[in-house]
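Quick start: read one record
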Amino acid sequence: MMKFNFYNPTNILFGKGMLNELGKQELPGKKALVLISNGKSTKENGYLDRTLEQLKIAGADAAVFAGIMENPLKEAIMEGAAFAKDNGCDFIVALGGGAVLDSSAAIGVMATNDGDLWDYVIGGTGKAMPVKNPSLPIVTIATTSGTGSEINCWGVISNMETKEKIGFGHSSCVPVLSIVDPELMMTVPAKYTAYQGFDALFHNTEVMMSKGVNIMSEAIALSAIENIYKYLPTAVNDGKNLEAREHVAYGSTVAGMTMQLTSTTAQHSMEHAMSAYHHNLPHGAGLIMISYEFAKYFIDKHACDGQFIKMARVMGIPEADKPEDFLTALAALQKECGVDNLKMSDFGFDKSECMTLAVNARETMGGLFEANPCELSDEDCAGIFERSYK
């Protein structure tokens, strides 16, 4: 509990109106690859134009690549890297939600290294080659609250050919500057606000469950859990409530710190397997579907009772004295946010897939299984999927 290694050199500008401060910052290059999604919101809401204007004020040119989709694909990474090379970009500005922020790390590395992304991926069919050249410097501007990738060096990329969704990162991918402006998050639809908010919540609850939790990661995680619990329902039900957006954004951003200090657990490995096979599944939705049974497995094993009690106490049950209180609080929060009836079957899952998903989770992101507070076999993992299935 008293040992930790924390290195995060990101300059974080957090709060209302902080996008307007970008033009005053010292940027890490002269021409930015501005990375956005292939959707319309960033353009229609004016965030792209505002960002380009701020870059101009700072004296930087820009080239826009609008090719990132939800659950970003390896092919999009390689296209983005080629675009950066062809346009002479010497740094990246990632403007968007989790998919865009995740993609920036992989594009940054592939813009400076030869070969294919899967040459450098560790896990599954990845070749685990060492990254020879550092990534292009990265600036992140978050437009959603969920991933935590705005301040860490990791992203998760899908390979449709091999049905793998694997985390990729390198120390050089830690953003040099991150802008978290809750005003940019007020247009996110209620459903996605909930999905993203629960992703942020589970980053922190998994850190609390992890056998690697320490005094610093626990303190930050509990603060984040408390803020998300208190404010996510309001953000879902009243997206224009800036106070709620600010507090959920806080919980999401500091999750990037907790994940630098302590790994998440196999809950994330399991969801990545789910969306590797069913690419239309939003990451947060998948996490919500398995979260109750995942936590219950470790509660039934009495693997970390005290950690569940601590979480329950900041999730509306201050008198909590048993780990099952966490399940009560989690179920109540999901109901309040309108995500308590999500069904795997609605996203094309069949119950016969459970063992396939369990094996894929371990093969592609087995490292997170090592962080679990006790053993979780393939059979146990498949059982969680089966009990979660609706």
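The chain has a mean pLDDT of 97.
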